Amino acid sequence: MPTVMEPKPAKEKEPTPPSGAPASGEPELFAAELEMEAKSSSFLPLLLVAGLVLVVGGTIFYFVKGARDVLTVPVATTSVTDILKAQAPPVVQFSTGTVVPSVNEKPQDPHYKLLAKAGVIVTKPKGNASLIVNVTGPGETLLGKISGVQKTKNPDGTVTYVVPLAGRVLVSVDKVTMVRPHLATVEYSWKWEPNRLGEEFDASGSLVKSFSTWDRATLIKSYGVDFYGAAPTKASISLMEGNNGVWKPYVE
């Protein structure tokens, strides 16, 4: 007797994904790309802000540093004043005792006569060319009040004096021109400030004018006489700022 076979149920077909739909795993990849784009879009403004901060900071640093590199009038005043003080003053040199002619001493030159007229010394001729020289009481007092007087005793028994007559003082700083950072040209005015003896050695004074033209020229050339009462002199100097911030004369 034939066996009755039950029909097998038809196997269900798996649905076919529609054309163009993303394959398995693509949604996660797409989400990661979106996240990266979001991070990138948020990083770009930060980068722009950082760049702007650098530009602004650099500009501020440039101007601050540039301001420090500029020589101001007060600093120029201090620098030029120090430079003028450091310059050697005009001096007159003479000796006391029996002064004989030598390379360093010319007792017949007019400075001994000028000192005698100023009341600093008294002289007495000895022989044809020598002088006996002594400092007067008022002369000792005067020399004692002058700063920087050098007094040296010599082997021959004479005493040599080197006496400053005047100093240079700053009147004004007229203009400061920056040549480049750390280098400036300063235009200024200065004048002589004579001491009490320097006033007697003024070329426009009555004592000096009492000498001959030749003697006045000798006094000006060799013995410290100058126009100490003249109007201020204009001058200029180049100053360079050192690593310690001090402005000093620039030498090429």
- Give, in order, the helices and strands: HHEHEEHEEEEHHHEE
Estimate the strand proportion.
25-35%
Proportion in helices: 25-40%
Number of helices: 7
- What topology, given as strand order, has the largest sheet? 2-3-1-5-4
Structural class: alpha+beta
Most strands sheet: 5 strands, antiparallel
Average pLDDT taken over every residue:
85
Rg measurement, Å = 46 Å
Cα(first) to Cα(last) distance is 132 Å
Which of globular, elongated, flat, extended, rod-shaped describes the shape? rod-shaped
Q: Residue ranges: pLDDT <50 for 5 or more in a row?
A: 61-67
Quick one: how many beta strands?
Answer: 9
What does this structure look like?
The chain is an alpha+beta fold and about 250 residues long. Among the domains are: about 70-90 and about 165-250, no CATH class; about 90-165, no CATH class. It has seven helices and nine strands, in the order ααβαββαββββαααββ. The protein has helices at about 25-70, 75-85, 110-115, 135-145, 195-200, 205-210, 215-220; strands spanning about 90-100, 120-125, 130-135, 150-155, 160-165, 165-180, 185-195, 235-240, 245-250. The strands form two sheets. It has a five-stranded antiparallel sheet with strand order 2-3-1-5-4. Strands 6-7-8-9 form a four-stranded antiparallel sheet. It is rod-shaped. Residues about 60-65 have low confidence and may be disordered.
